[in-house]
Specification:
This protein has 9 helices and 8 strands. The chain is α+β, with helices and mostly antiparallel strands. The protein has a domain at 4-194. α1 runs parallel beside α3 and α7 (124-142) runs antiparallel to α8 (146-162).
Length: 360
């Protein structure tokens, strides 16, 4: 039985997984509700894969007969893995996981195939297409488009595994193995909805308003959720901060440029929901950096991070007529970073600040 029903079913499952991703919830959910949400999403994904597989078999391969039900069931169960993969598509392990799922899905057309040939007629076209997919996936990963890279890696693995020379015909999956796959997909899909913050032993809480330590028993209550996070990195070994000073005038026509100020970041990182601009008093303080600590929004919305670097010494504004900032960053998506410069009074730090400029 050719590969068209399998590919169509998997594409339908991927599209259904992307469309059925929960956008926002008003509160954290417990394990029962998380399992119910995951089961509903998997039901939609599996139904989409099964319906498309049956439709493709009825339209192009009517001779499938009673085997069409088994083919549709196997395609639906394999398509369930599109839900957790779509949710974690931005993780580093998404690409190898997608490639593995693509290779496993390539077994489906061979299970019910009536062609007993030892090898396909030619592998040149399929291997060329797989190589193009792999190179494009590598380029997508380098450019920061990991979901697209994962999809292309799955396509490359499917092309290689589906048309590689077969040693023996695989046996149809049993009902027990399909049920085990469905349960595993359900648990992995529900896990992000009930993911809890790290234990208080891994954090450093400061200030009288720091919240109580989170325990597994209260991790799902609204009171235990973090309203914001403040990351304080360890102090760097060498911090160079030179405030610009007026250059001495040796000649009316000769002006020496002031030395540049080199600042190694030593401020704070604020992890906030998108609707906030400053951390609330109840924000949790961590001794970490965004590279060494991970945060997850329980409602799967985007988080906002602000890195604030104050100057350790006041600067006389009369010394300068312009401000030039050169930022060195390792961000893989520079378009997502905005740089803002504010002017605040040291005598009244809580007063109004003046925005000097903003650049993306």
């Amino acid at each position: 039985m050719p590969w068209l029903p399998t590919v169509a079913a998997l594409l339908a499952a991927w599209a259904a997984a992307l469309l059925s991703q929960p956008q926002s919830v008003a509160r954290a959910v417990g394990p029962p509700e998380a399992l119910a949400r995951a089961a509903l999403q998997l039901a939609l994904v599996g139904a989409a894969a099964a319906v498309v597989a049956r439709a493709a078999l009825a339209a192009f391969f009517p001779e499938a007969g009673v085997r069409a039900r088994d083919v549709a069931l196997a395609c639906a169960v394999h398509g369930l893995w599109a839900a957790p993969l779509a949710f974690h598509a931005d993780r580093p392990w998404a690409i190898p996981a997608a490639a593995l799922l693509g290779a496993l899905a390539a077994r489906l057309p061979r299970i019910w195939s009536s062609d007993d040939g030892d090898a396909p007629e030619s592998l040149r076209g399929h291997t060329t297409a797989a190589a193009v997919c792999l190179h494009t996936a590598a380029a997508g990963e380098a450019l920061g488009h990991r979901p697209a890279a994962a999809f292309l890696a799955a396509a490359a693995a499917f092309l290689v595994a589906a048309w590689a020379p077969r040693m023996r015909k695989p046996s149809p999956p049993s009902k027990a193995s399909l049920a085990l796959q469905a349960v595993a997909a359900l648990l992995i899909t529900a896990n992000p909805l009930i993911q809890t913050p790290r234990s208080s032993q891994q954090t450093e809480r400061q200030g009288p308003k720091a919240g109580p330590a989170h325990s597994p028993a209260t991790a799902f209550s609204d009171e235990s959720l973090m309203s914001g996070a403040i990351l304080i990195p360890l102090p760097p070994r060498h911090v160079k901060l030179v405030a610009p000073t007026p250059a001495p005038l040796r000649s009316p026509r000769l002006v020496r440029a002031a030395p540049l100020a080199a600042i190694e970041f030593s401020g704070q990182y604020w992890i906030l929901p998108s609707h906030r601009r400053r951390p609330p008093p109840s924000a949790t303080v961590f001794r970490a950096t965004p590279i060494t600590y991970d945060f997850t929004a329980v409602d799967q919305t985007r988080l906002f991070m602000q890195a604030s670097q104050p100057l350790s010494a006041p600067v006389d504004t009369r010394c300068c007529s312009a401000l030039e900032i050169a930022l060195r960053s390792t961000e893989r998506q520079p378009a997502t970073v905005d740089v803002l410069a504010y002017l605040a009074s040291r005598e009244n730090p809580r007063g109004a600040r003046v925005l000097l400029g903003e650049a993306p």
